[in-house]
What does this fold into?
Amino acid sequence: MKTNLSSQIKLDRVPRRYYAPQGELELAALTREEKIYTRIFETSDDGSEYLARHIADVIRRNVAAKNRCVMALGAGRSTHSVYASLIGMYERGEVSFDRVTVFNLSEFFPLIPEGPSTLARLREIFLDKVNVRPENIHTINPAVTMEDMFEYCNEYERKISDCGGLDLTVCEIGPSGTLAFNEPGSLSTSHCRLVLLSAEVRHTIQTSYKCDECPTTAITLGMSNILASTRVMCMAWGENRSKVAYEAIEGPVTDTVPASFLQLHNHARVALDLSAADDTYFLPLESDIVRMDQQADPPRHSVAVRPDRQTDSETHQQGLHRLGPWRTGGALRLGLQREYPGVQRAATHHHGLAGRQAECR
It folds into this structure.
């Protein structure tokens, strides 16, 4: 019997076609606002399985091509379910990590005895459970001093270069749009460096690592290192990542949301669960209820439309009737509304966050 059902209970169930359409035309309509390739899944477990399969494919292709796969791995909480899926694949014999070289994406500095450590976390949840060779695991040297920090960071980058560069980077999109410890204000050209951790990040670390004391600084690969990776795979689970996921995937490229720099990458991939793809929590409708009723003659539906996204003539041509002006969390994807005449509530679940405005009763 499944007992962990609380996270699967939904008052309004989103039709699958609103976030995982089968046809190419519907997919193109749903993703037209996205600037990063994005997939949405009903649960984080589904999204983690998807990312794990793609990570395994990257490993197999690179090992076949050059007998090595070089990865930078983050230790954020959202990555844990992805690593768990990879462990399952390894135990079933579907993937091997024998030829994988791992670089730790970031580490706290200085390391506090009995305090948090990203490498210790990576070992606990992933590295010690697969067949990565110990000599192929690289991380920040805790013995580095402030005096030689600059040269050490350059040396860490040279190690990556000597391995042929990063084939894949895996990390979560943090609560403020962070990648690794690249917090708001980080430039796309930033390199491996020592950074000051904000109070919000330290609070998240204390919660995640269940520790009373947290370092105020850390060493992290910079945005330029992440963007230089051949492929980047990121994830965001839960409604507390909804707003920042929307800004990263559909907003402008800005250093206030470092994850938005992924828009500049040709092979970046983001996985979201339904909660992370819902921006109504942050951008509610001006009305609690939007009614969409089928008209008798001609057949059409009443729908909430953002005035800046659709003209009256376009609405009329598509057999729809404008209500409003209503403020929604994203663009309305009109192409999917006709076949759902019984829609009662606008939900803005968005594939790529552009706004999926309706749910079936």
User: Anything to note?
Assistant: The CA atoms of residues 110 and 155 lie 18 Å apart. Confidence is low (pLDDT under 50) at residues 1-6, 280-350, 352-361.
